């Protein structure tokens, strides 16, 4: 078994992981300290799901915009379940990070005067979203990846699959990974470890996410005693393509696209987002520029009322972009035009795009402190896998691309500083962990007959969709939780058919399923125990259809238990700057600070 | 349900010395992509089939394969467009590691070799100011910045097939993208790498790379504009003695 030492090991090569790697290398240089950084990913970094982000990245930019306004939008957008100290740090550092991306070559869209262009986004009081056409995540990821090549301190381990962490005396000691090309296990000893493994959208049947978004890092931290926080808050993006779930960016609405039901009516005006804004004059925080949770909920209501259309067997509403004109669409939204044409044969220049909500983003994640460190010393987390506390009960579109820069950097800097004052752990701790993993893999590959893991996966994603959808009930969530717990039992006996070593992708998918089952229990438990409605967590149960700050202005924390059901606790929310208030959009929000 | 037959060139290095063809019957409707078909094979017919994929929306660049001899993204290839035989192979010109998974290391090395990042001495200091760049300046390189690194152009390139040391279409395009960027001052550092035999001069302008590019990046145009730049660079170097 290969054993290697690094000062810092970063798991995940998406936006947060790459930003962290560069920040760690820069920090080490500025401290005149040679440090070695491993950047490990189960794919090549530019395949990471950051690549699929379309709309943009938010930061206060215009002279008439204020940090206070971005803070207020984020806190009210998150239905006051946001860590306010964290949001304050975020809005203060957002612009600096987007400028840094520009200095590294990111091809941001421009105004005629050569300055960076901004666009409108949902739930934001003013236009503050930087964008690179409608491929912002793609351009950010490639810019970060290409920039990372300048740093010889960063050693990439492409196509290495993380299996486990090693923890010794309450501190991280390293990780255990599988080299996918050979099937060999490797031990990477580290003074600091950063998890940047992305979200868990693939727990749900219908989603916008790439196949790799399976929550690996979340499950690994969770199994080592770190809380998963606010996992019940799962974002449904209101506009996914029917059939595939492929994302159609919110920027379509930011640029003036409108949503119609089957009667051609702009139904959002009936859901506290009106009055109707004139065609071609989108107005921030009105109608189509409401927040994602409210828009997805409005779809569900229309569906119940029989006012949705159908497309290829799916209930849909329609995103109409025709009035924006061909030239504008091809300049601002070229990827959307390409996707609609390729995947559902609709040309947005000529026809409205049928769309429906799809699971998009995991608001919760690995609990960290405001400096990205978890309850395991030296273990950091950043990006979608983390719950640093920025998004609360509902994330605003274009806050997450900025988040992965702001907190990826912070995690990288902090990990570098910690590595400088920390000794490597005794390698025996790491070896024990590896032996444990080896035994688990050997068992999974012992060639015995078992039921097919694909069947478990199908049952899992179906249960999550049925039980933890846009609207939820006590019965539905309870049933989902029971299903997940039974699946976890069945998973213990699962074997894979392919027992080879080289690129055994069946084994990897089966391990990912195991990660997913653990996280799913946390999601269901958090959802079931939160007996109120807040942000993306909406209940139909009597007496639970409104926000209940007295009882639930609290984060849920779920702790893994090896020999029994997971355990839930509640944690206070940092509300130091902004007292909870009514969350209002459209005309109802006129004059309110947020 | 309608079905179609696809034949996949398999290679299991731990079991067989040589590749073999295996046919599969897969369900199809109007929206079935080749990637959907591969998922069906893996989940329902033969779990040992290995292939790369991720975003399934033609932006991550993972799922390139040969379809009837043409390099394609699996997720953006639809079985409705094929009537007869559908033969799936790993991307040409790369060593095969298993089934449809090829060794991409040389591709990554070529990308890194051209210094594909913005070079400017003014970058050392962190600043609150962006560079200015007009939409016209952006338009000069924007198309070339849309490469998703899928590698299809390398499978289309006969020169890369003959000589894997050739930097190849994507890497040369990326170099050109930065050379054209009004913010960049690094062209002089990139030109020696581009101006070698294994740089732009290995390209014989077959142009197939641009035909197969799923993002219309037009690497052939970038490479040939790069030849002009390389020739200028040589001349200037001559004059400077």
Automatic annotation (TrEMBL), chain A:
Its EC number is 1.3.5.1. The keyword Nucleotide-binding applies. Keywords: Cell membrane, Electron transport, FAD, Flavoprotein, Membrane, Nucleotide-binding, Oxidoreductase, Transport. One of its GO terms (molecular function) is succinate dehydrogenase (quinone) activity. It comes from the Bacteria. Its main location: membrane. InterPro entries: FAD-dep_OxRdtase_2_FAD-bd, FAD/NAD-bd_sf, FRD_SDH_FAD_BS, Fum_R/Succ_DH_flav-like_C_sf, Fum_Rdtase/Succ_DH_flav-like_C, Fum_red_fp, SdhA/FrdA/AprA, Succ_DH/fumarate_Rdtase_cat_sf. Residues 458-585 form the Fumarate reductase/succinate dehydrogenase flavoprotein-like C-terminal domain. It catalyses: a quinone + succinate = fumarate + a quinol; a menaquinone + succinate = a menaquinol + fumarate. It is found in: Cell inner membrane. It is a peripheral membrane protein. Residues 7-401 form the FAD-dependent oxidoreductase 2 FAD-binding domain. Its cofactor is FAD. Belongs to the FAD-dependent oxidoreductase 2 family. FRD/SDH subfamily. Part of an enzyme complex containing four subunits: a flavoprotein (FrdA), an iron-sulfur protein (FrdB), and two hydrophobic anchor proteins (FrdC and FrdD). NCBIfam families: fum_red_Fp (TIGR01176), PRK09231.1 (NF006686), sdhA_frdA_Gneg (TIGR01812). This is Fumarate reductase flavoprotein subunit. It comes from Halomonas alkalicola. The lineage of its organism: Bacteria, Pseudomonadati, Pseudomonadota, Gammaproteobacteria, Oceanospirillales.
């Amino acid at each position: 078994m290969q054993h290697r030492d690094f000062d810092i090991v970063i798991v995940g090569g998406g936006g947060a992981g790459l930003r962290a790697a560069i920040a760690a290398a820069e920090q080490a240089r500025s401290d005149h300290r040679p440090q070695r950084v491993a950047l490990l990913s189960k794919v090549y970094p530019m395949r990471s799901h950051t690549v699929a982000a379309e709309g943009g990245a938010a930061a206060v930019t215009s002279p008439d915009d204020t940090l206070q306004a971005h803070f207020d939008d984020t806190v009210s957008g998150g239905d006051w379940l946001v860590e306010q100290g964290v949001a304050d740090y975020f809005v203060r550092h957002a612009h600096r990070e987007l400028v840094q991306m520009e200095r590294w070559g990111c091809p941001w869209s421009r105004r005629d005067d050569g300055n960076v262009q901004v666009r409108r986004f949902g739930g934001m009081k003013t236009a503050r979203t930087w964008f690179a056409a409608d491929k912002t995540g793609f351009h950010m990821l490639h810019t970060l990846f290409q920039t990372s090549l300048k740093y010889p301190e960063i050693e990439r381990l492409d196509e290495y699959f993380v299996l486990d962490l090693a923890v010794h005396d309450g501190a991280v000691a390293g990780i255990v990974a599988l080299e996918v090309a050979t099937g060999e296990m490797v031990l990477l000893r580290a003074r600091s470890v950063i998890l940047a493994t992305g979200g868990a959208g693939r727990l749900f049947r219908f989603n916008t996410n790439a196949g790799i978004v399976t929550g690996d890092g979340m499950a690994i931290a969770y199994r080592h005693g770190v809380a998963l926080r606010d996992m019940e808050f799962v974002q449904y993006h209101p506009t996914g393509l029917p059939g595939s779930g492929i994302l159609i960016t919110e920027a379509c609405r930011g640029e003036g696209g409108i949503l119609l039901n089957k009667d051609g009516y702009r139904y959002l005006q009936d859901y506290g987002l009106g009055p109707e804004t004139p065609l071609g004059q989108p107005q921030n925080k009105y109608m189509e520029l409401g927040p994602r949770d409210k828009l997805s909920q409005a779809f569900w209501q229309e569906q119940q009322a029989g006012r949705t259309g159908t497309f290829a067997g799916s209930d849909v509403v329609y995103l109409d972009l025709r009035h924006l004109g061909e030239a504008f669409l091809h300049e601002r939204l070229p990827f959307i035009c390409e996707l609609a044409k390729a995947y559902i044969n609709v040309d947005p220049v000529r026809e409205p795009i049928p769309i429906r909500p799809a699971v998009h983003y995991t608001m919760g994640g690995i609990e960290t402190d405001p400096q990205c460190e978890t309850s395991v010393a030296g273990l950091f987390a950043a990006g979608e896998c983390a719950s640093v506390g920025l998004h609360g009960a509902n994330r605003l579109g274009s806050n997450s691309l900025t988040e992965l820069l702001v907190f990826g950097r912070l995690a990288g800097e902090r990990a570098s500083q910690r590595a400088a004052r920390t000794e490597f752990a005794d390698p025996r701790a790491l070896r024990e962990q590896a032996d444990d993993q080896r035994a688990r893999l050997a068992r999974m590959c012992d060639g015995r007959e078992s039921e097919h893991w694909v069947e478990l996966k199908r049952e899992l994603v179906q249960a999550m969709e049925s039980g933890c959808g846009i609207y939820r009930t006590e019965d539905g969530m309870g049933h989902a939780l029971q299903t997940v717990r039974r699946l976890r039992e069945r998973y213990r006996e699962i074997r894979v058919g392919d027992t080879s070593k080289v690129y055994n992708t069946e084994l990897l998918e089966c391990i990912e399923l195991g990660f997913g089952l653990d996280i799913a229990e946390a999601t269901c438990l958090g959802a079931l125990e939160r007996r109120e409605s807040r942000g993306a967590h909406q209940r139909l149960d009597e007496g639970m259809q409104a926000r209940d700050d007295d009882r639930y202005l609290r984060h849920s924390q779920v702790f893994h238990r090896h020999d029994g059901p997971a355990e839930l606790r509640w944690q206070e929310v940092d509300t130091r700057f902004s007292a909870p208030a009514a969350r209002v959009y459209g005309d109802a929000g006129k004059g309110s600070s947020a | 349900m309608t079905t179609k037959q696809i034949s996949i060139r398999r290679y299991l290095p731990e079991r067989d010395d040589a590749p073999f063809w295996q046919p599969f019957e897969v369900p199809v409707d109007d929206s079935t992509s080749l990637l959907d078909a591969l998922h069906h094979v893996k989940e329902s017919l033969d779990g040992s089939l290995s292939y790369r994929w991720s975003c399934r929306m033609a932006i991550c660049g993972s799922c390139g394969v040969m379809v009837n001899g043409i390099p394609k993204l699996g997720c953006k290839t639809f079985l409705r467009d094929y009537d007869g035989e559908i033969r799936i192979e790993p991307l040409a010109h790369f060593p095969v590691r298993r089934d449809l998974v090829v060794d991409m290391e040389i591709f990554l090395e070529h990308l890194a070799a051209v210094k594909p990042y913005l070079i400017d001495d003014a970058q050392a200091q962190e600043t609150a100011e962006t560079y200015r760049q007009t939409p016209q300046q952006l338009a000069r390189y924007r198309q070339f910045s849309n490469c998703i690194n899928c590698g299809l152009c390398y499978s289309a390139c006969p020169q890369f097939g003959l000589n894997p040391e050739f930097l190849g279409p994507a890497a040369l395009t990326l170099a050109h993208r930065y050379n054209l960027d009004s913010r960049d001052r690094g062209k002089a550092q990139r030109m020696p790498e581009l101006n070698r035999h294994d740089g732009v001069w290995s390209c014989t302008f077959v142009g197939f790379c641009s035909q197969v590019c799923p993002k219309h990046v037009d690497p052939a145009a970038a490479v040939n504009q790069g030849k002009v730049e390389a020739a200028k660079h040589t001349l200037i170097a001559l004059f400077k003695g």
